[in-house]
């Protein structure tokens, strides 16, 4: 006989899959935002790689585009938080979330379904970025296993940021507040090692950039892809792969339960 916790888990997974399908169906029916989200990072790669790349110097030598691409992969992951926020805030503002709360479904299904759909979108976007990188001359040089590990770290960071976006959307509830989110995301993204080495920054800003969770993922990906990196002898520089796991896990541990709890208490 199936135990009660097992039945609840089965129903929660089933409900989450249904709502994941709903989110994916919306993307198919409204492809323009998806296409824009895929093409914008490609435009940034072309701009930084070809317009500014000739003026950039990689510490220790190496091709700037190979230095840049892991950073652009991570930036694409970070900017995805805006799409997550907009989708959840729009459902909340239009009353869709309230409708879901009246249905006999698992309390976590709405947010987990959204998280699963956004992770699939991100995987597709990352595949586009990898293809773009290969087209402009980037390549991984440390073997396919380490390259897959790097992709896994990128998706782990995206999964963590999905939960941050869901929680913020459930707190603010207004789609137009995405502008305020952009004001936070863009400085965090650029205050990292994605485009330049922290050692080129002022001392205090370099310390902030080194300990930026995004920097940990970028540095770890450069190491795993075998691309040029900025090096450094700080703890953050020497343990980039470990921090690229620890930071996202901490974010998930904080914002996943907060998101589920916030969803349960909407309207109270």
What's the quick description here?
It is a multi-pass membrane protein. The chain is mainly alpha-helical and 268 residues long.
Order of helices and strands: HHHHHHHHHHH
Radius of gyration: 20 Å
Uncertain segments: none
Describe the sheet with the most strands: none
Compute the number of structural domains.
Answer: 1
Classify the helix fraction into a percent range. over 70%
If helices are DSSP runs of H or I spanning 4 or more residues, what is the number of helices? 11
Q: In terms of structural class, how would the helical and strand content be classed?
A: mainly alpha
Strand content: under 5%
Distance between the termini: 37 Å
What is the typical, i.e. mean, pLDDT?
81
Instruction: Count the E strands.
Output: 0
What would the principal axes of the Cα set say about the shape?
elongated
Write up what this structure looks like:
The protein has 268 residues and is mainly α. It has one domain. The protein is 76% helix and 0% strand. The chain has eleven helices and no strands. The protein is elongated and about 60 Å long.
Provide key terms for this protein.
268 residues, mainly alpha, elongated, Transport permease protein, ABC2_TM_bact-type, antibiotic resistance, membrane
Strands, helices and their partners?
Elements: H1 4-29, H2 31-52, H3 64-93, H4 96-101, H5 109-135, H6 144-172, H7 178-190, H8 203-210, H9 213-225, H10 235-238, H11 240-264
Helix pairs in contact: 1-5, 2-3, 2-5, 3-5, 3-6, 3-7, 3-9, 5-6, 6-9, 6-11, 9-11
Subcellular location: Cell membrane; Membrane
Transmembrane segments: 32-55, 67-89, 123-141, 147-171, 178-196, 235-258
Pfam family, one: ABC2_membrane
């Amino acid at each position: 006989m199936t135990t009660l916790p097992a039945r609840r888990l089965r129903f929660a997974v089933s409900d989450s899959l249904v709502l994941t399908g709903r989110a994916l169906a919306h993307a198919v029916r409204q492809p323009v935002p998806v296409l824009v989200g895929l093409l914008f990072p490609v435009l940034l790669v072309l701009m930084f790689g070809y317009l500014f790349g000739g003026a950039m110097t990689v510490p220790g030598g190496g091709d700037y585009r190979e230095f840049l691409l892991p950073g652009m992969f991570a930036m694409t992951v970070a900017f995805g938080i805006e799409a997550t926020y907009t989708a959840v805030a729009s459902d909340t503002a239009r009353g869709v979330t309230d409708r879901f709360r009246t249905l006999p479904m698992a309390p976590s299904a709405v947010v987990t379904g959204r998280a699963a759909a956004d992770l699939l979108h991100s995987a597709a976007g990352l595949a586009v970025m990898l293809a773009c990188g290969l087209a402009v001359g980037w390549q991984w040089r440390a073997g396919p296993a380490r390259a897959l590990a790097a992709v896994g770290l990128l998706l782990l960071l995206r999964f963590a940021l999905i939960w941050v976006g869901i929680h913020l959307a459930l707190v603010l509830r207004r789609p137009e507040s995405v502008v305020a989110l952009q004001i936070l995301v863009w400085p965090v993204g650029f205050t990292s090692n994605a485009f330049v080495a922290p050692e080129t920054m002022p001392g205090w800003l370099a310390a902030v950039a080194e300990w930026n969770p995004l920097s940990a993922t970028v540095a770890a990906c450069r190491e795993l892809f075998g691309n040029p990196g900025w090096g450094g002898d700080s703890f953050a520089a020497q343990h980039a792969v470990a921090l690229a796991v620890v930071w996202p896990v901490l974010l998930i541990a904080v914002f996943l339960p907060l998101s589920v709890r916030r969803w349960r208490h909407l309207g109270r």
